[in-house]
Design goal:
The protein is mostly loops. It has one helix at about 85-95. It has a domain at about 5-45. Helix content is about 5%, strand content about 0%.
């Protein structure tokens, strides 16, 4: 049995004609398939040979830690901040009008019936009469 270093295991990084991977179709000696090009890693990995300053990052002394007075000064508001998930904040975000904005034409009376201007029909369910004495008691004894 041969030792493990004697096996030729196919890889996607070095193309050869025996593998059926995408590396066969790529020109060049080595294939990289990490999803990003070399340009994307230029700021992630820095070699000691190339330690020149990057033009896109500011150097020391570019910031003024004590903001001056005037247009560039720190700004603040006296209004308190509304916490995330607050009903008032959600209503403002969804543009929900506050209560009392519209006239409620679907009001019902004390018995649960819509008013006569409503476009909605009242329930057709059977209604029971109001509680009262069914039998009137009459005095049959002469006085």
């Amino acid at each position: 049995m041969p030792s493990p270093d004697k096996y030729d295991i196919p890889t996607v990084f070095k193309p050869n004609n025996t593998t059926t991977t995408f590396a066969v179709h790529v020109k060049g000696p080595v294939t990289y398939c990490f999803g990003a090009g070399r340009e994307s890693y230029s700021k992630v990995v820095m070699s000691k040979r190339n330690l020149s300053p990057d033009a896109s990052s500011p150097g020391p002394g570019a910031y003024d830690p004590l903001k001056p007075i005037g247009a560039n000064a720190l700004k603040f508001k006296l209004k308190s901040r509304i916490p995330y998930g607050d009903p008032a904040q959600i209503a403002r975000k969804k543009n929900i009008p506050p209560p009392g904005t519209y006239d409620d034409t679907l009001q019902t009376d004390k018995h649960g019936h819509y008013n006569h201007f409503s476009q909605w029909n009242n329930s057709k369910a059977a209604r029971w009469g109001y509680p009262h004495d069914r039998f009137k008691v009459t005095n049959t004894t002469p006085q």
